[in-house]
């Protein structure tokens, strides 16, 4: 589509000139080449671009990235697109690019798929558009068996409007250089139907064009352009062959085929259909363990200040969870408060005349076994990647070795998936310790109630409370605790919050934390050690007020960058996506 007038060209040129990639396109081919190279006026202000470059927002997982054993600069692949739906061709495109680069002796540390913003997809696909959270879930499912490919949610979830792929690349590269390896370089991977995008790398940066069936002329046009000769000679722009199994595969074809069979369409989109609509959601459980988890703060915060602040925090959190659960419509959900004190009473009674080994650190026991499932921060967190000692505890084997008993009662606050209790049972039995009984405290205090749709501890939602947060492991192997809030923890997978309600709930929870800490005056250094370590990794110092930390994330939940708007009608191309 040609630009409408010289005035439009001038406006686009002025905006595009801020982008170092599109500045080179203008210099070599003029503003008339902008749209064919993927550019659109995304409404970004100079402040937006500075935020993207200078203040990276932590929301991108890095756990699958690997460093080279030699001196090769780590390369990280990036593919953007709607991924509606993702298919094998998208994965094969990354595989082909990796092979091409590694055949040159280079090290590919990993790869990212970055799904497009919902506004882009809604304009491009209209009624076929699938929300970002569903597309991200499909991406995670597709790449789960690949130990080097991850999904980055920043473009789809943490900006206000669609943005240029060049900004996605710049932000990812800056983020990884700050948080992972300062020498890494992000390489764009595109299908041959988008060969023109490679012109953005005429002077700097790198791009791999992967062949696709029927796109030979687009690829040849770029590779045979004399102005691209230097970039091709320096291997900053390279071509890679397609995989035969996916050379003609596209999301468009998959959507067309799925549309012919409604059941297949539902499967292709990743929607659960009737299973979700007919689910009998009855109750949601929240364990009230704030008094135990804040006992350390009572030494420094006056009771007349702490007690009202905790009461307000609890009220705000419960109302926020209720609103988040009801926001999507559907069955009515009641939020039940589980009594932590009743669980402690049951635990005390169990300890009379018995040796009780508890996996819960907040209830009485003869011995405590500090083990936990461990996750990756910023990931979808549908499944843990192992079980480890809780941060600050000895190894599980050392803990079991300290238990001098032949028979024990094994206890936990709840038994949800059974993974942790099974692991503990195997540890104890392997040490010759018999388990006479297994107890779930949640079941013990409410034996006649049905299992809730999910269960969360109230302390997890209060940043830095004792033993709070999700146990996570960073790329260097350090085990810490991340506050149980987005962007660190996915409340959709970890707390069964409807995806469309997650950011709104996150805003309210960060607000509740900011209010609590404004009243109490607590600082990062007052957080429990494991949460403090995690906050340090994000650049927060011990002297920083927790109210300011929480308020920063509260604002980020609503004041998303790139809020000026975008001319999405100019983006209707890129058929691979």
Q: Could you tell me the strand content as a percent range?
A: 5-15%
Discrete helix count: 23
Oligomer: single chain
- What best-fitting shape do the alpha-carbon axes yield? elongated
Radius of gyration: 26 Å
Low confidence ranges: 1-9, 263-278, 573-577
Summarize the structure.
The chain is of the alpha/beta class and 577 residues long. Strand 13, helix 18 and strand 14 form a beta-alpha-beta unit. It is 39% helix and 14% strand.
Describe this structure in words.
- This protein has 577 residues and is an alpha/beta fold.
- Helix content is 39%, strand content 14%.
- It contains 23 helices and 17 strands.
- The chain has helices at 6-16, 20-29, 46-54, 88-102, 118-125, 132-143, 154-157, 165-179, 216-223, 229-233, 251-260, 262-269, 274-277, 290-293, 303-326, 340-350, 396-401, 419-430, 441-445, 491-495, 502-520, 529-537, 546-558, and strands at 74-81, 107-115, 149-151, 185-191, 206-210, 237-240, 283-288, 334-339, 356-358, 367-368, 371-373, 387-389, 407-412, 434-440, 455-457, 470-473, 479-482.
- Strands 3-2-1-4-5-6 form a six-stranded parallel sheet, with helices on both faces.
- The relative contact order is 0.12.
- The model is unreliable at 1-9, 263-278 and 573-577 (pLDDT under 50).
Properties at a glance:
577 residues, alpha/beta, six-stranded parallel sheet, four-stranded parallel sheet, 39% helix, disordered N terminus, disordered C terminus
SSE layout and pairing:
Elements (H helix, E strand, L loop, with lengths): L5 H11 L3 H10 L16 H9 L19 E8 L6 H15 L4 E9 L2 H8 L6 H12 L5 E3 L2 H4 L7 H15 L5 E7 L14 E5 L5 H8 L5 H5 L3 E4 L10 H10 L1 H8 L4 H4 L5 E6 L1 H4 L9 H24 L7 E6 H11 L5 E3 L8 E2 L2 E3 L13 E3 L6 H6 L5 E6 L6 H12 L3 E7 H5 L9 E3 L12 E4 L5 E4 L8 H5 L6 H19 L8 H9 L8 H13 L19
Parallel strand pairs: 1-2, 1-4, 2-3, 4-5, 5-6, 7-8, 7-15, 9-10, 9-13, 13-14
Antiparallel strand pairs: 11-12, 16-17
């Amino acid at each position: 589509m040609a630009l409408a007038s010289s005035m439009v060209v001038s406006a686009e040129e002025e905006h595009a000139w801020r982008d170092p990639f599109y500045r080179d396109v203008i210099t070599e081919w003029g503003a008339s080449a902008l749209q064919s190279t993927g550019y659109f006026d995304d409404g970004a202000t100079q402040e937006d671009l500075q935020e993207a470059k200078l203040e990276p927002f932590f929301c991108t997982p890095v756990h699958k990235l690997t460093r080279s054993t030699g001196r090769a600069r780590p390369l990280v692949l990036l593919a953007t697109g709607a991924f509606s739906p993702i298919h094998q061709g998208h994965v094969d495109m990354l595989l082909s690019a990796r092979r091409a680069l590694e055949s040159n002796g280079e090290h590919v540390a990993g790869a990212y798929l970055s799904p497009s913003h919902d506004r882009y997809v809604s304009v491009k696909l209209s009624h076929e558009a699938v929300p970002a959270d569903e597309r991200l879930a499909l991406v995670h499912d597709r790449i789960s068996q690949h130990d080097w490919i991850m999904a980055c949610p920043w473009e789809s979830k943490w900006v206000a409007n669609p943005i240029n792929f060049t900004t996605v690349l710049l932000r990812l590269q800056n983020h990884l250089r700050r948080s992972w390896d300062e020498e890494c370089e992000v390489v764009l991977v595109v299908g041959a139907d988008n060969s023109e995008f490679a012109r953005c790398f005429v002077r700097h940066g790198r791009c791999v064009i992967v062949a696709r069936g029927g796109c030979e002329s687009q690829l040849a046009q770029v590779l045979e352009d004399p102005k691209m000769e230097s970039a091709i000679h320096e291997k900053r722009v390279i071509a890679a062959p397609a995989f035969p199994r996916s050379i003609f595969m596209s999301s468009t074809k998959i959507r067309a085929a799925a549309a012919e069979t409604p059941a297949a369409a539902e499967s292709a989109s990743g929607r659960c259909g009737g299973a979700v609509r007919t689910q009998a959601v009855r109750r949601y459980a929240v364990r009230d363990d704030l008094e135990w988890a804040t006992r350390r703060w009572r030494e420094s915060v006056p009771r007349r200040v702490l007690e009202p602040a905790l009461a307000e925090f609890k009220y705000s959190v419960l109302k926020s969870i209720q609103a988040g659960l009801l926001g999507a419509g559907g069955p009515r959900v009641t939020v039940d408060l589980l009594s932590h004190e009743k669980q402690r009473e049951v635990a005390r009674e169990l300890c009379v005349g018995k040796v009780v080994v508890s996996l819960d650190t907040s209830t009485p026991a003869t011995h405590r076994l500090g083990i936990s499932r461990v996750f990756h921060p910023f990931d979808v967190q549908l499944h843990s990647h192992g079980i480890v000692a809780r941060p600050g505890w000895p190894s599980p084997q050392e803990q079991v070795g300290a238990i001098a008993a032949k028979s024990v009662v094994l206890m936990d606050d709840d038994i949800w998936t059974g993974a942790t209790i099974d692991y503990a049972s195997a540890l104890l039995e392997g040490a010759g310790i018999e388990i006479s009984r297994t107890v779930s405290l949640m079941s013990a205090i409410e034996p006649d109630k049905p299992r809730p749709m999910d269960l969360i501890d109230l302390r997890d939602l209060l940043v830095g409370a004792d033993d709070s947060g999700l146990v996570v492991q960073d790329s260097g192997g350090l085990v810490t605790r991340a506050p149980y809030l987005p962007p660190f923890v996915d409340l959709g997978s970890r707390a069964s919050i409807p995806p469309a309600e997650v950011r709104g709930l996150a805003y309210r929870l960060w607000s509740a934390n900011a209010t609590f800490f404004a009243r109490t005056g607590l600082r990062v250094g007052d957080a429990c050690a494991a949460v403090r370590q995690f906050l340090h990794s994000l650049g927060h110092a011990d002297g920083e007020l927790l109210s300011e930390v929480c308020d920063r994330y509260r604002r980020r939940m609503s004041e998303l960058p790139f809020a000026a708007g975008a001319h999405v009608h100019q983006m209707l191309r890129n058929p691979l996506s």
